[in-house]
Amino acid sequence: MAIELIVNALLLVFSLFCFFYVGATMPKSPVNELGAEQWPQAILILLIISIVWNLRNYFKRNAHSDIVQAFKNIFPDLIQFFKSKLFLGMIMLMVMAWAYEPLGFLATSILFLIGYGILLGERRPWFLAVTVLVITLILYVGFSVFLGVMLPRGYVPFLRQIALFLESVFQHL
To answer: Which of 19, 50, 82 is the last residue of a domain?
Structure first.
């Protein structure tokens, strides 16, 4: 319970920092158009509103004495958190972010989705393989073809060749 409050408070502070950082560092767009700085700020405003709402609900459903008691028992809760699937999933996400450039989008997505599927308890290899390939393909086509986002190809030669081949295949869509 105390961890929830701490995480929400840290997310709120970080979101506010990001909101003002984006406003201060991005070039200002003309008044009559939505620029590059306004889209992240709009999303951050929604995130800040959601966090404030969550904090309000937290204090509404928990008595002051329960909150104080939760902070007294924070160390066993932290140990339990570090052993949880949630924390392992967070670590996997950080590894994915680190591996994104060197391995490329395709390999990173496939490895991450396989790992996360196993973490969530999927034990049917055929289902996991089909699901991972379909999701990766949908993400690749959605971002690369429809949105025109350049996805990393990776530095590993054979992974880069696969990405270049897929780009040539989907270039005609």
So the answer is: 82
